[in-house]
Amino acid sequence: MLNRSRSDRDFAIRLMDHLVVPAFALGVDGRVIIWNRACERLTGLRASDVIGTKEHWRGFYDSPRPCLADLVLNGVSSERLYASLSPVDAIPSALTAENWCVMPRLETRRYLAIDAGPVYSKDGELLAVVETLRDVTPQHEAQLALKSLASLDGLTGLSNRRIFDERLEHECAEVMRGKPPVSLLMLDIDYFKAFNDFLGHQAGDDCLKLVARTIGGLHLRQTDLAARYGGEEFAIILPGSSLPGARLLAGQFRRAVEELAIGHPASPYGVVTLSVGIACTSELDIAEPAELVARADMALYRAKRAGRNRVIDLGGRGDRTSTPSAG
Prior knowledge:
Elements: H1 2-17, E1 23-27, E2 32-35, H2 37-43, H3 47-50, H4 68-74, E3 84-87, E4 95-101, E5 110-120, E6 126-135, H5 137-151, H6 161-176, E7 182-189, H7 192-199, H8 201-216, E8 225-230, E9 233-239, H9 243-258, E10 274-280, H10 281-284, H11 289-305, E11 311-315, E12 318-322
Parallel strand pairs: 10-11
Antiparallel strand pairs: 1-2, 1-6, 3-4, 4-5, 5-6, 7-9, 7-10, 8-9, 11-12
Helix pairs in contact: 7-8
């Protein structure tokens, strides 16, 4: 019977070693007992370097941290370690996850789908935990690309209106929970219909793309969001920004677009210019997205009525205007 048990164990090890799926197994003490050939190819870490140790993490990460098999073995789950993590319904104690792994031995970064589950004896005694891995990097990158396309305006490459609406709603909700104020800039290209009429729609599209590139690349933080709001109108969400900071940035946008010196034969300024309206939750004592947009739009309308190529904000002490001469 003892020989039969040893024979069965040896067969299981050989079988797992020749699996085309990368896999490894930990004993009840957390040490590696199997590291198959496919796992060697995936990680660049040889079985002889890892079997009998607790250093299986070296195949996937730069510094020590639990792998999924460790979580199953120790009966814990830690969502912060993985991009996604969930139990396997059909197998008690088993976990499934996805994560970016840096693969130090191969100096490459791969996105892996990972499953880990316990192996028990006939008597219910825990014998090992097996982890299997699948490289799904191409599929994941394709999903990211599709998600990115779905969130961007096709012409300008800025965020689209749907993403703008979702983000503004989120930031206003944060303000209502006591977070710092949010400022909103509404920017409109002056005399744009006349620009199209004089120079044609292709020139109009080229103008929109150039202005968008200027807006999207000028002094924005990672937390800010620049979007195409519609037509020749753009919007910028500035979380945590007070009115003076928003006013300063708006003036920089206005000047940067004017300095592009895109010829505009139908504009009194001779070049493409921007009008900008600003609203800030703290100045107006509001945190409703629709009202914030309405106030910024009102400021933009007043900038248009006042002669265009200027910045107007609706502050608590009345309108403030920044004109070309005032900067």
